[in-house]
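User: My collaborator sent over this chain with a note saying "see what the structure looks like." That's all I know about it. Can you take a look?
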Amino acid sequence: MRGKRLSIALKAALAIFAVTLAVAGTAAGQEKVLHSFNNTDGANPYASLISDHAGNLYGTTYAGGAYGYGTAFELQPEPGGGWTEKVLHSFNNNGTDGYNPYASVIFDTSGNLYSTTVYGGVGLGGAVFELTPKAGGGWTAKLLHSFNTTDGANPYASLTFDSAGNLYGTTHQGGTYYEGVVFELTPGAGGIWTEKVLHNFGSSGDGYYPFSGLVLDSAGNLYGTTPMGGLCVNCGTVFELTLTAGGSWTESVLYSFSGTDLPLGGLSFDASGNLYGTTEYGGAYGSGTVFELTPSAGGSWTETTLYDFKDNGTDGLNPYASVIFDTFGNLYSTTYEGGGAHSYGTVFELKASSGGNWTEKVLHSFNSSGGGTYPYAGLILDAAGNLYGTTYEGGAYGYGTVFEIKH
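Assistant: Without extra context I'll predict from the sequence alone. Here is the result:
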């Protein structure tokens, strides 16, 4: 079955986790399925993974679990090879829990997990939740905030911590113009969190319907993408939010795409302060791009297309996720379609060469013979340079996988 795609009207925490993961040998470029979801333990993961210092992997599934509304899970590597999955929480459509988590989880310094659900919560517009490990085992779920449309609705994106412990994120809809918001959650006494809307999307020339999470620079400015708005309705933008001396936030559109580019994934910084991302469509062949934004002294940003995906699909089609860097400056991500005869998606690498050119290499093309299909999420790297991610469908039961690609 074709991977489920949410419409723009309903619709990536971008970090490289240097961990050592004990796994059995796999040929370079070959996919190894670490776990196949069976619906009862989760189904259809859209989100990328994170890792702790012990090499355990964490993520979410959009559906499945005890109530059919998604899960948060952990995968633990076994000493003799293989992995064991543990469901940390099954989300429930009971009026108090959030449900259908789309985004990846993030850790705080105490080992608690945080993320969002697209729907549910007390206000039914989605929620921000925390998972706290219990002393004797198990995890406790707590809703930190329920969206009520006026303050945002339907958060698809992962969250970002600042150094003070505040959380930042986006909602796809809701707010003043019902076209999405950027929000901040601040912890207070007694475990109470206070939400503040930093920006309402939808004013003239603005982007709207933000789908991805945010990245922070060293000065505390926030950066993200919107798949729509800007110079045209279906173009999309890259934006910045800057904190002013008076405590308010000012939004600036750094770049407006032309045509139906649709930047759905989040952004990544390099060491020089340049931003990198992907567009689902657009480019020379209309099949998506990898792009770089470079800041200039006068405050403007210049966009450079690093790679145009071909319309024949052999090198991948329609990248959905953000990119990550290895220590050599190479870029890695996924496309949820393309990759030869099957067109079930790819894992790809971009290497910089002299003259500012980049060369793409398909590390793996997914197929339906027991492997995963349709990788919507981005990737993480371990210390050995191996890649880990999720697929929305495929695997032994058809409900998606967690996979490793040796590199």
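A starting point for your reply to your collaborator: Residues 1-25 have pLDDT under 50 and may be disordered.
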